[in-house]
Design a protein that fits this description.
Strand content: under 5%
CATH superfamily: MFS general substrate transporter like domains
CATH class: Mainly Alpha
Shape: globular
Mean pLDDT: 86
CATH architecture: Up-down Bundle
Number of domains: 1
Structural class: mainly alpha
CATH topology: Growth Hormone, Chain: A
Distance between the termini: 19 Å
Low-confidence stretches: 1-9, 448-465
Number of strands: 2
Radius of gyration: 22 Å
Order of helices and strands: EHHHHHHHHHHEHHHHHHHH
Largest sheet: 2 strands, parallel
Amino acid sequence: MTAPHTAAPTTGRNRWIEEWNPEDEVFWRDTGERTARRNLLLSVLCEHIGFSVWSLWSVLVLFMGPEYGVDAAGKFFLISTATLVGAVARVPYTFAVARFGGRNWTVFSAALLLVPSVAAYAVMKPGTSYTTFLTIAALTGVGGGNFASSMTNINAFFPLRQKGWALGLNAGGGNIGVPVVQLAGLLVIGTAGAGHPRVLLGVYIPLIILAATGAALRMDNLAPVRNDAGAAFEAARDPHTWIMSFLYVGTFGSFIGYSFAFGLVLQTQFGRTPLQAASITFLGPLLGSLARPGGGRLADRHGGARITLWNFAAMAVATGAVVIASAQGSLAVFLTGFTALFVLTGLGNGATYKMIPGIFHRKALAGGLTGEAAAARGRRLSGASMGLIGAVGALGGLAINLAFRQAFGSGGTGTPAFVAFLGFYAACAAVTWAVYLRRTAPVVAEPQPASSPAVAGPRSAAGRS
């Protein structure tokens, strides 16, 4: 057993912790867990608000009636613009944690959400130019960047054995910002009417101030997490960063793409009114968000790669049902299949993200490192890779929105887009099996549970304990 450690007290107004070793069980029990959970709680709140702001335009387009002069293709492009900027912002946000400190950057990034929210409040009315709407939609993308910095920060706080749960809870609490803002939009449309989008924006501005203030007062910076450009370049050169990016396109890209587009699909393909669409839109993202921590828990117990494989297979089946429903115009079957897809994207998000720290930790062990040295290298590279993986995954949401825009623009139906998504999920399942589950696979994504028969099988050097 490693000698007990205690976290150095935070000093000054920037609340820096000088020593942090979550793999030390004594340290974790005495001081580490309590501090990590407090930071996790505030991180979830700030990321939650960030996701709500990022997905604002999935709701605001429902308020945009004929008097706004924007057709369905133009609305899909607005939400695509928000998705794109949010995806790109994730890369610098990842490294900002190490450069400025997790607490400091959380305060700044939360406060930055005021810019697009106040701007949207000022311009959200008929007669505003489409270029102005497009600019404001781009500004909301900063909310998407919050995910990357939040996940990188929380990854450093928790030990490997709890990362699936912690990252799943952090991301799930953030993801749930999507259905919450959609539910808030439903309440506004149902009470004030579709002509009052500013009511929705007026609710979020004080919430942003509250989240930033809470982070400033109660979160901490970890001094051991230093800016390390070498880790970023090393992670970018590692093929597993890009393999996991591909898989994350299938899970998170689907979640955010469907979340942003669901209401518009219901309006465009099934003729739902804004109130009818809003009354359904929030349910899928809500269930997907709630499922994400469950995916992390399942991955902790059974292995992220195994859960990810079966999840992609189930996503392909659900998408097949949606294709049939879309072609036949069956709203009931469509909603059932789409809701199942949302739940599966949430489970898949938790499982795939659990794989990331496990992969780099196992590679460190295979390279001859042991104990805290292996754990530290795993944290270093997995933290650096998460921003890249999160950014590429979010670009999957952009691809989904553009696919819908093309499908509806050319044929008036989303069926061709769903057929393409079905093929992609099949490819994701094949990659997961080939790279991480074959007996001759080059690396195992995480240590298998002791009860798992997978432990007994021969592995390559990177996969052996």
